[in-house]
Protein: Wall-associated receptor kinase galacturonan-binding domain-containing protein
Amino acid sequence: MLNKEKLVGVGLITLLHLCFFSVCVAGQNQPCRPSSCGDMLNISDPFRLKGDPSGCGDSRYELACENNRTILNLYRGKYYVEEINYQNYSIRVVDPGLKKGNCLSTPLYHLTPENFSYDHPYAWPYDWGFRTTVLMSCSRPISDDKFIPITSCNSTNGTTSSSSQPYHYALSGDGESLQVGDLPGSCTIGKSIFSKLGAASEPGNRSMSSLQDQLLLGIELSFLQIQCIRECRVKGQSCYMDYTVNSVKCDDPNSCKDLSDDCYKPIWLKGLIIILQIIFASIYTPIIAAGILGRALLGVVLSYGIYKLRQRHISKHDTTKEIP
Ligand SMILES: *[C@@H]1O[C@H](CO)[C@@H](O)[C@H](O)[C@H]1NC(C)=O
Ligand SMILES: *[C@@H]1O[C@H](CO)[C@@H](O)[C@H](O)[C@H]1NC(C)=O
Ligand SMILES: *[C@@H]1O[C@H](CO)[C@@H](O)[C@H](O)[C@H]1NC(C)=O
Ligand SMILES: *[C@@H]1O[C@H](CO)[C@@H](O)[C@H](O)[C@H]1NC(C)=O
Ligand SMILES: *[C@@H]1O[C@H](CO)[C@@H](O)[C@H](O)[C@H]1NC(C)=O
Ligand SMILES: *[C@@H]1O[C@H](CO)[C@@H](O)[C@H](O)[C@H]1NC(C)=O
Ligand SMILES: *[C@@H]1O[C@H](CO)[C@@H](O)[C@H](O)[C@H]1NC(C)=O
Structure:
């Protein structure tokens, strides 16, 4: 009789575990074949392309494929994806308005690090640095070689260029080092363009062509947020992102090391399992029940391990008993 109860108990616990485990597996993103678009092969988890099977990738990281170009819709802008690096969680995007040519084209969209909200799937980490390029129109020519003479695509027709400021220049430098205060009085500031920090422009190649190459590197954004979601939020913990090493830290100091425990996502579920285990365990072994209760009270969530041990112990016990 006791044996039957035990078996029912074990069966129920096993069912519970299997059930929660399968829920956990189903909720996780399934391994999918990488997608490709134009030159971009291996678009893989957490990214997905519009139209991929619904279980693939993460919907927060959906990209589109238009005319063989991979597109990232970011706030009000639509950017070309140039490169995805899964090791350092970086995605490099370029504004479609920027083009190589004999005049300097400008971005279609205005995007700065301030555009990014804290919880957005993408971040523009200050730690990664960026280059700022300021365009300006001047009434007199400037001989300082920091000022790169440019031909603005707007003014090639002579239509939009104001005749009082016919000289166009660009000043480019690190986010911090660019001193707009240096501006000669005869100039007015136009657009600012941000780009990835590239090779520093040597005085020898401060040309419009080099500047275009620099701007066409685009900007580098981080998708490290996905690690926060997958490693920390799942456990109800908060997360710190370190963009200098591109890794995350969950804030729970006694986070459990047992991977199987990660599957019980909500804390109430863990609690429920522990309570059920205590109830079932108390049916046959009050000592183990007390042990579990003690552990639960201590806040240690290694109950799965105990359960496994206990299960092994019980099944051995049962088989020896059942053999006549
Ligand atoms: C894409 O992935 C496959 C297999 O994972 C690998 O052989 C191939 O080199 C990768 N291609 C690129 C461009 O990363
Ligand atoms: C995309 O690329 C494929 C092969 O690389 C080509 O057959 C197709 O015409 C291209 N489509 C567009 C819209 O450029
Ligand atoms: C970034 O923010 C500015 C100011 O709020 C806004 O004008 C601009 O459209 C935003 N950029 C994008 C790409 O949405
Ligand atoms: C990420 O790695 C790629 C390839 O090694 C590199 O080009 C890129 O600059 C790196 N980005 C960051 C932010 O470390
Ligand atoms: C080109 O003209 C647009 C407005 O038509 C202006 O916003 C932009 O700053 C101009 N670009 C340059 C490089 O002067
Ligand atoms: C150049 O001028 C032509 C007509 O004179 C106009 O249709 C075109 O839009 C102009 N291009 C630019 C870039 O201003
Ligand atoms: C500057 O010129 C050197 C060689 O002259 C080249 O290797 C480097 O890429 C250039 N830098 C930029 C930003 O174009």
User: Anything to note?
Assistant: Confidence is low (pLDDT under 50) at residues 7-27, 300-324. Residues 3 and 321 are 9 Å apart (CA to CA). The chain is about 30% helix and 25% strand. The helical segments are 2-27, 208-215, 225-232, 267-284, 286-298, 303-322.
